[in-house]
Amino acid sequence: MKKIYVVGLGPGGFEQMSKRAMDAINKSDVIMGYTYYIDLIKDKIKDKEVFVSPMTKEVFRCGKALEYALSGKTVSMVSSGDSGVYGMASVIYEVCGNYPEVEIEVIPGITACLSGASVLGAPISHDFAVISLSDLLTPWDKIEKRLDLAAEGDFVICIYNPSSKKRADYLKKACQIVLKHKNADTVCGYVKNIGRNGQEYHIVTLNELQRVKTDMFTTVIIGNSQTKVINGKMVTPRGYVYI
Amino acid sequence: MKKIYVVGLGPGGFEQMSKRAMDAINKSDVIMGYTYYIDLIKDKIKDKEVFVSPMTKEVFRCGKALEYALSGKTVSMVSSGDSGVYGMASVIYEVCGNYPEVEIEVIPGITACLSGASVLGAPISHDFAVISLSDLLTPWDKIEKRLDLAAEGDFVICIYNPSSKKRADYLKKACQIVLKHKNADTVCGYVKNIGRNGQEYHIVTLNELQRVKTDMFTTVIIGNSQTKVINGKMVTPRGYVYI
Prior knowledge:
The structure is a homodimer.
Chain A lengths: L1 E7 L10 H9 L2 E4 L1 H6 L8 E4 L5 H13 L4 E5 L9 H7 L6 E6 L4 H9 E2 L5 E5 L7 H13 L3 E5 L9 H9 L8 E6 L7 E6 H4 L8 E5 L5 E3 L2 E3 L8
Parallel strand pairs in A: 1-4, 1-5, 2-3, 2-4, 6-13, 7-8
Antiparallel strand pairs in A: 8-11, 9-10, 9-11, 12-13
């Protein structure tokens, strides 16, 4: 059997993985992923072949996974969160497009908008939009348009990749677009290093969010018009009438 | 300590829960939830007090959880998926608003848009919006507006609660709104009974999706303009330029 598992490890360490994810890793001959993810599970994969690769070079890495699979080795490609959300799953499908004999199984994990939400309280209990501010693979005007429409629709907005060294002011720019439709005192939250050492969370207004310093390990959630603070947590009511 | 865990069990059975979720259940004196969810974990909670409650009556149930917590019993309120997404987490925060001494910990789980996506392939690898078609707690015109704006923004759209007996034509109505902005041949998918007996998935066009019969156990994903079918799976490319 020629098989590639694309495995989401969830946030942080072993305790937030599913048994299904661990089972896939146990059934694999080769484990692939960034150093950081491999480190999270290194105690569990001592008897495995490990292929560590640097950030970027996703297509190269998926080609390598395909090579292993074609040679008869079962591969697990691991990442944090869920590999179906801005992750490797779609790249694997594209790279293996001409090899239908390779079976691909995506094993979902807890993505940052869920784990981040749980740290902040219950901010995504109503309709929400997930938007990445990374313009590496997406034109910025498309990102701007989505921010604008999501804000107009009063969606809760979860922002991935809010900034990086090269894009220090992207979160501020995003807030300014959202402010066209949402009040300046809209409840917002952000979480750094979810489920890891150094986890911290903050609840601020949309106005204050403009000046917040974030990095690639920060997840930001902008509330909807109903979102409120209850005992220090960010809570979006599930409905409009029930309480 | 007065403590309530709000625990997402993920889709299906035990193997898709996190260790953290199981640990919370083990630390609890009382387990609360719908019959269906309690059944999923019944082998693990033989020594626990169990409070089973019917669908609806969420506020009553959360009040009961608060009572247990105030009496010194640690409670786990369990649900499938992630209890922060259209789930009990926000209701618990609201009901416990006047009792800051009750500690609430939300333990995230794999919600249906992630588990459904993994069954279909990799459809949410780019920006996406999550919208429930249930108008029990949300006015229908608000739902329509969100569908319209999400479609205009070329978001992948994940639809929860696509229909019920009383709302047999809601998915069709939703498709008609989305068709104002997206092509009739946009790739769509739906999954029934994710992670459970009877799981099935289908990939159709947006035009065909209008006539699909769904129920409350179906999750629907409408692709963006880039979404395609690769070897029978639904795949949204992560970016616009990399391959």
